[in-house]
């Protein structure tokens, strides 16, 4: 069943045929959240995009080891190894231990992922749990001549590395331009080169999180953690490395450099990056006041939102855009997605009620083929959704009696909807858990049926209009009456 999947490789800047190093085993590493605050919606899009990729690779017959790390140490405020540690700063602000901050926001992240019905990764390592591996990797880089120590801090020598390797292979930026656009080193800066970055940072006496190392008490730099953990769990070379496009220029660029300086080979065969979120055409940003936390989006508790939107509505909205394209949030777009998602779920609820005919004029295989082809084309979920709406149209016409479907094709249709809506996309019908509402509506529909049979059309219409006024649409068909939310 293994598919010939074409995926876009950031390094080659083109679609490539996916050829795992050790098929059917696939190693995938995705940079996880930095857990010093609530996960924002941009992070969620990245993790849901790779959840889709994880699900489809598994669906296609691959055995996937999906590693997604938790950053809980060594993340400074500045990109140039300067400023306060974000965990320590938050811990002081909330008057907690740093690991209490880590635990609090890690649990919050997991809660959000569960609400989005994302599969957990195969392994979820933490930076603080792999200090030894990071130290050993740094020692190897030093021994290979690509790092140096200054007063207990270890820096990576970018210019020396660049003489043998392509430091900007991921972004295709010009190294000379990068050097020219980097500010002059101040008198207090211990780095030899402007682009050098810290692998290990000497701790100040008041530093809350610090560890013993060959160079004294300190803590790891942000970039080394992913290089060390990906190598530990996936090997020095693995299949896919992913994350948000904002990580490419610095974090992922430095990851490649560290790994090559250590093992003399690139860590990942394919690099994949998700695009950014915008709000009403403007980049999502906390400073602009247009950034959403998932909880704010679910409750509607944000000045830019007209109302709250369910987790599955938001997930469906994200799936309607390709993972490499910009996704723009607006109330109109979310409301349209809400209606589209309900339409899809209403069609799924009709499937058990469809009656097959001895003969039919509907063929499901072409739809499935187009869905498979779309997913094989760099995981093109928007095209799959369009095909699922075509399947929805077929379901409605069969239910209305305007089209006929054979038993064999009906089974294919059920399998198609289950495979792509639930298995590949990871959506779920949020109304199915509301058993009380289902029972009440079944009773109301039964009362309306009795009224119609008794030719009490005034009561029948009153029930239909009353439900419509509260957002419940009734639909009469040959097999009975169904309901859906508007």
UniProtKB/TrEMBL annotation:
Pfam families: DALR_2 (PF09190), tRNA-synt_1e (PF01406). ATP binds at residue 286. It is found in: Cytoplasm. Binds 1 zinc ion per subunit. GO terms for biological process: cysteinyl-tRNA aminoacylation. GO terms for cellular component: cytosol. Its cofactor is Zn(2+). Monomer. PANTHER family: CYSTEINE--TRNA LIGASE, CYTOPLASMIC, CYSTEINYL-TRNA SYNTHETASE. This is Cysteine--tRNA ligase. It comes from Pedobacter polaris. The gene is cysS.
